[in-house]
Structure formats: structure tokens, C-alpha cells
Amino acid sequence: MTDDDIKSAIGDESLVGLPVKIEHTGVPVGKVLSTWDNHGRLDMLLEVNEKIFEGGVVSRFVRSQVVRDLSLGYTVGLQFSETSQSFTATKKTFQEVSIVRIGARDTCHIHGFSDPETNPVSKKRKL
Question: Each residue of 67-89: pLDDT tens digit?
């Protein structure tokens, strides 16, 4: 993602509310709660529903560091130029965020997680 893509995604909150999936497939296991700029990098807070089977499994994989990365599912608009006879990429439209074993980019890692069973602060806090 470019700097402009990050600024746009944070500014218009286009990622907030998107479904969280596993490896870009299957049922949503959660959603994106918030996004922010972390020194030019996009950071986000995800909520995973551990009450459904898939959410419980992926949460255990994250805790044990079997799964460590994130990946964005998006489409890119294309605009054709008659004069140059070429396509130009326009705005990205985000579809989902996926928890993946190995991401396409080497900097899209899961940096932490909170377990509501062992963290009393997150148990009391409603998001």
C-alpha cells in the first residue's frame, strides 16, 4: 500500500467494520474495529469471535504463533486511456482483512492479542 492508500483508508475509515477471514476464504470470524497511522504504517485493531468454531481455532493459532500475519483483500479500479492505450490503477476498494500463515508482504504481522479469559480489562471493556 502506498502512503496515500494508508492515509485514505484511515481518513475515510474504509477498513472499519470489514470482515476478518482466515486465508481470504470461509465465514467471517470477526471484524475490524479501528485503524490508525503508526509512523507511516497502517495498524488496526481486530475483534475475533471465539464463540464460533473457526474463530476459536484461528485464535489458538495466533496465540501459539502458527499464524502470524495479516493480508488485505481488495480490488483495484482500472481506467483506460484512449490516448496512451493503457490502463491506470485508480482507488483500492477493501473487501476484507485476513489472518494468514504467511503474508505476501514481510511487514504485515500480528503484533499482539488480548485474551478475554485472562485479561480482566478486556473482559469488562465493550468495543
Answer: 999 999 999 888 888 888 888 88
CB < 8 Å & 24+ apart, contacts of 56-59: 58/22, 58/29, 58/99, 59/113
Termini Cα distance of the chain: 27
pTM over 0.90: no
Q: Would you list the DSSP string of 58-82?
A: HHHHHHTTS--EEEEEEEEEEEEET
Q: Rounded to whole angstroms, how far apart are CA atoms 22 and 73? A: 11
Radius of gyration of the chain (CA): 17
May I ask the CATH class of domain 3-114?
Answer: alpha beta
The ranges assigned to domains in the chain are 3-114
Contact 95, 18 (CB under 8 A): yes
User: What number of residues does the chain have?
Assistant: 127
Distance, CA of 120 to CA of 35 (rounded, Å): 23
What string of DSSP letters covers 13-61? T-STT-EEEETTEEEEEEEEEEEEEETTEEEEEEEE-TTSHHHHHHHHH
Q: Which residue type occupies 53?
A: F
